[in-house]
Amino acid sequence: MSLAAIKEKAATLKAGFVESGAEPVDCPVLLPADTLLDLYGEDIRTRAFLTHDPVRGEVILRPDFTVPVVQKHMAEGAEPARYTYAGEIFRRQEEHPERPSEYHQVGYEVFDRADPAGADAEVFARFSEALAPYGLRAVVGDIGILIAAVEGLETSEARKAALMRHIWRPRRFRALLDRYAGRAPVPSSRTALLASPDPLSLAGPMIGLRGTAEIAARVDALRADAQDPVLPGDQVDLLEALVKVSETCGNALEQLRDIAVDMPAIAGAVDRMAARCEALAARGIDVTSLMFDANFGRTSMEYYDGFVFGFSARGRPDWPLVASGGRYDALTRQLGQGREIPAVGGVIRPGLLVDLEEAA
C-alpha cells in the first residue's frame, strides 16, 4: 500500500462529497491543546500527541477534524452547511501498537437544524453509497436513548452526572450502576475515610496539584453521595435490558418501545429513532436488515450524543472501523460560545479501502 494510492483514494472520496454539495475545508495540523483538554480532560494525553510551542504554548497534533470544523462553522458558517475534508490525523496507539499512529481520514459533516432525522439519514446514505463496492458490514446505534434513560433515573443529580461522564466507559458505568443500586459493596477505604471525623488529619504530605480545599470538597461530595438512597432495582433492570438490545432496526424499535412503557424518559429518543428509520428507508436504506446495537459507539465515539454508525470489514476483526460517525449536538453547544446547531457527520479511512482493493 503506497501513500500515493491512499491520497488518490482520499481525493476521490472527497470529490464525491463535493459533488453532493459539501464545501471543502482545510484545518491546521497543530491545534491549541486547551480546547481538547477542556473537552476530554487529561485523558486526551493518552490518546493524542501533545507538544510545546514557544509562542503558542501547549499544542496538539490534530487527533480528528470534527472539533476544528465545528469551531470554524460556529465562528463563521452559514446555515445550513455541509463540509468535507481530507488529511492526516495523529493518534497514539498504545493499546494497538500494530496500528499506525498517523493515517488519513476523509469526512463529511452536516449542520442543519431543520430536519435532524433527515440529516442523519443523509450522512449514512452518502457513506453507504461510497462504500457499497467493499462489502462492509454496517451497524447503527443511538447513544441519545441511553442518555435519556440516565436523565430519567430516580437518583441525585450528582449521581446522574457521574453516570453521564462514564457512558463512554462501559465498565466504569456498570461499576457505578451496581454501587448505586446496592449490588456492589462500598470500597473499605471509602468507608474508613467517611467514618473519620477529620479525614484530612489522616493524610500525609500533600503531593500533586490538588490543594486542601479541593480535597475537603471531594470528601464532602462523597459524604453526600453516601446519604443518597439506593437506586430502584427495577430501573437498573430496565437499563440492563436497554443496553442489551441488538437486533435489526425494526425489531430493535419494537423492543425499545416496550421498554419505554416502563421507562417513559426514553420515549422521545425512541420516537426520534423511529423518525430516523423512516428517513433512512426514504433514502433507499433497507432498515429491515440494518443492524442496531444499543451499545455501539460507547467505547470509541466520545463526543457523539445521538445517532451513531460504523462500517467494518468482514473477516478483519483486528481492524478498526473502516468508517464511523454520528450526531454531536452537544459539541456545538460546548464550542459555540452561546450558539448551537444540530450536527452530524462521519469519517472514512481511505488507507483501509486501499488495503481491501489490493487484497481482492
UniProtKB/TrEMBL annotation:
Q: Which residues bind L-histidine?
A: D64, F65, T66, R91, Q105, E109, R298, Y303, Y304
Q: Matching Gene3D superfamilies, A to Z?
A: Bira Bifunctional Protein, Domain 2
Q: Which UniProt keywords apply?
A: Glycosyltransferase, Transferase
In the record, biological process GO terms are: histidyl-tRNA aminoacylation
Its GO CC terms are: cytoplasm
Q: Which residues form a coiled coil?
A: none
InterPro entries for this protein:
aa-tRNA-synth_II/BPL/LPL, HisRS-like_core, HisRS/HisZ
Q: A Pfam family for this UniProt protein? A: tRNA-synt_His
What superkingdom heads the lineage?
A: Bacteria
Q: Which GO terms describe its molecular function?
A: glycosyltransferase activity; histidine-tRNA ligase activity
SUPFAM superfamilies named among the record's database cross-references = Class II aaRS and biotin synthetases
Residue span, Class II Histidinyl-tRNA synthetase (HisRS)-like catalytic core domain: 5-195, 221-346
What NCBIfam families does the entry give?
Answer: PRK12295.1-5
> What is the name attached to this protein's record?
ATP phosphoribosyltransferase regulatory subunit
Q: What species is given as this protein's source? A: Mameliella alba
